[in-house]
Amino acid sequence: MTSGKPSKPNVSHPHSENGHRQLFNETEKNEQYRRGVKMLQERCKAIQKNNERIVHRLHAVKKMTRKRNREVEILKNRLDRYSDGWRTAPQPVAVKLEESKASE
After folding, report:
1. Eight-class DSSP state of 4
2. 20: number of Cβ within 10 Å
3. Residue 59 and residue 76: Cα distance in Å, rounded?
4. Could you write out the DSSP letters of every residue in 5-22?
5. Which residues, 6 or more positions from 31, have their beta carbon under 8 angstroms from its beta carbon?
6. Model pTM?
7. What angle do CA 100, 101, 104 make, to 5 degrees?
8. What is the pLDDT along the chain (104 residues), one digit of tens a residue?
């Protein structure tokens, strides 16, 4: 018959042979986890650095695009002031195609 107290789990004494192996296994496991976590942290840092480079490049490209669009608008306005008739001129692509056919 039991006394009503919960039984103690079967844990070996830390100084016994089994306890020593158990502690060694736990420290080895902990070390594996630490190495894994460190590798994950390094990988996350590398990915973050790459993402920051991409974001920086995106901002630079957006800035260049806005600048180009502004310059195109300025050029269009200037040509319109000169009444150049540039809007009715043939497309440059068609001219390039004719030039390439003539050289063949």
Report:
1. S
2. 13
3. 26
4. SPPPP----TTSHHHHHH
5. none
6. 0.51
7. 90
8. 556 666 655 555 555 566 667 777 888 889 999 999 999 999 999 999 999 999 999 999 999 999 999 999 999 999 899 888 888 888 776 555 556 665 65
